[in-house]
Amino acid sequence: MQDLTEGVARFRRDVFPAKAELFAYLATTHRPSTLFIGCSDARVVPELITGSEPGELFVIRTAGNLVPAYTPGIDGIAASIEYAVAALGVSDIVICGHSACGAMTALAESHDMGALPTTADWLRHADAARARTTTAGVDALVRANVRAQLANLVTHPSVARALTRGTVALHGWCYDIGSGAVEQLDVVNPFASAA
Q1: Is 101 a residue of the active site?
Q2: Catalytic residue (one of 41, 139, 143, 147)
Q3: Which pTM was predicted?
Q4: Where would I find the beta strands (DSSP E) of the chain?
Q5: Residue 193, pLDDT score
Q6: 39 catalytic residue (yes or no)
Q7: Beta strand pairing status for 169-175 and 182-185?
Q8: 127 is catalytic
Q9: Of the listed 98, 125, 143, 156, which one is catalytic?
């Protein structure tokens, strides 16, 4: 905790004063352009990877960058997606997988998840990715998972409406931790003909 306390002190002393005008603007304005859905892995920092300033990204982080298909009911991920798209009007949505993902490694290597029942249940949202993967290995599963989560994303009513209107674009990324490279996957708007 000491490291975090010292980090806050450095932020207040060094970072905040240098960006005081930006933070004053952000105190009353919230208009991110992009919804970034990434893994909760501590090595994947969306703002750092994209060179974004505070206020530019609306970020959702989940284990394995998983996005459950839409179902009615209380769901924090669905609520965050709906808010970003319908209230904030983001113009882009990125789902970003990454190399050495613990969630995808557990699935690709069939790890025993008996001691982590909640995690095992959560990882079932990657079943479609596992079914679509024809190449063995974590990297192939990471890519298939990004595509599967994009398919889940379009089941959310706010996203489907925005895609139909042509007001949002979807992007699939795979970030390599070791090299810093970001691979952009081909993404097709399933509603493009209706736009």
Answers
A1: yes
A2: 41
A3: 0.92
A4: 34-39, 57-62, 92-98, 169-175, 182-185
A5: 59
A6: yes
A7: antiparallel
A8: no
A9: 98
**Catalytic residue of the set 10, 12, 31, 43:** 43
How long is the chain?
195
Cα separation, 183 vs 56, in Å, equals: 21
DSSP 142-181: HHHHHHHHHHHHTTSHHHHHHHHHT--EEEEEEE-TTT--
> Which of the following is catalytic: 96, 101, 139, 143?
101
Residue whose entry in the numeric block shows the structure tokens 């924090």: 76
- State whether residue 4 is helix, strand or coil: helix
Cα separation, 64 vs 60, in Å, equals 11
State yes or no: is 96 an active-site residue.
no
| From 39, 125, 143, 174, the catalytic residue | 39
Residue 174 among the catalytic residues = no
Q: What digits encode the pLDDT tens for the residues 66-101?
A: 999 999 999 999 999 999 999 999 999 999 999 999
Task: Give every CB contact of residue 146 below 8 A, 6+ residues apart in sequence.
Answer: 65, 95, 96, 97, 172, 173, 174, 185
How many Å apart are CA 57 and CA 44, to the nearest integer? Answer: 14
